[in-house]
Design a protein that fits this description.
This protein has 232 residues and is α/β, with parallel strands linked by helices. It has a 7-stranded parallel beta sheet with strand order 3-2-1-4-5-6-7, with helices on both faces. The model has no long low-confidence stretch (mean pLDDT 97).
Length: 232
């Protein structure tokens, strides 16, 4: 599905990003995996604008072009009441989860210069509803969804599709505090019709679809992959 395509995947050293990078390779794509610390990829911090510029330049240097961007790098340094969140937690979360997505997308569009392209933003079901004790993180994901829809409108005439995936709870290092808490984990499982927590590879399939020509008429969409949680 992705033969002859070149993709950049951020936050690719583990979890959802790693699963997406591997799925893209399996579908025939050439992939530049990006993370702050990574082997066989490109080390960069997407919370820094200059690093986002360098990411796209490196991909073009290695492969001659870029067709697909998966914005996945994320952070969630604060868990607690929203009104008690520190400015430092706000700044770090917004820089990585939102500004980094914007900067990387901007650089992709600059490179494409009118060629077709696809952006897949990893959001969260927490961006679709209130999220007690995860307010800062959830706000960034809600903003990612808003940005996805706005860029879909603005970039459609340039042949660039922009979509988002909103996963439910996934067994990753980022979500380990929730996954490993018996009460929280049980609550998520109880509310999801499929009755379990997702594996990272179960999110990767959605990314393959949205990045591929199979989704050639899909843009501005938010694909919820949550085991049915939001259905209830």
């Amino acid at each position: 599905m992705l033969k002859d395509k070149v993709a950049v995947v951020t936050g690719a050293s583990r979890g959802i990003g790693d699963a997406i990078a591997k799925a893209f390779v399996a579908q025939g794509a050439q992939v530049l995996p990006v993370s702050r610390k990574i082997e066989n990829g490109f080390a960069a911090h997407t919370g820094k604008e200059a690093d986002c510029v360098a990411i796209m330049a490196e991909a073009v240097k290695r492969f001659g072009k870029v067709d697909i961007l998966v914005n996945n790098a994320g952070t969630n340094p604060y868990y607690g009441p929203l009104l008690e969140a520190s400015e430092a937690a706000w700044d770090k979360t917004f820089e990585v989860n939102l500004k980094g997505y914007f900067w990387c997308t901007r650089e992709l569009v600059k490179h494409l210069q009118g060629r077709p392209g696809a952006v897949v933003n990893i959001a969260s079901v927490q961006g679709l509803r209130g999220a007690a004790l995860q307010g800062v993180y959830a706000m960034t994901k809600a903003a990612v969804i808003s940005m996805t829809r706005t860029l879909a409108l603005e970039l459609g005439p340039k042949k660039v599709r922009v979509n988002a995936i909103a996963p439910g709870l996934v067994d990753t290092r980022l979500a380990s505090g929730l996954v490993n808490d018996p009460a929280i984990s049980a609550d998520w499982k109880a509310r999801a019709p499929l009755g379990r927590i997702a594996r990272p590879d179960e999110i990767a399939g959605a990314a393959v679809y949205l990045a591929s020509d199979a989704a050639s008429f899909t843009t501005g969409d938010v694909l919820v992959v949550d085991g049915g949680l939001m259905a209830g």
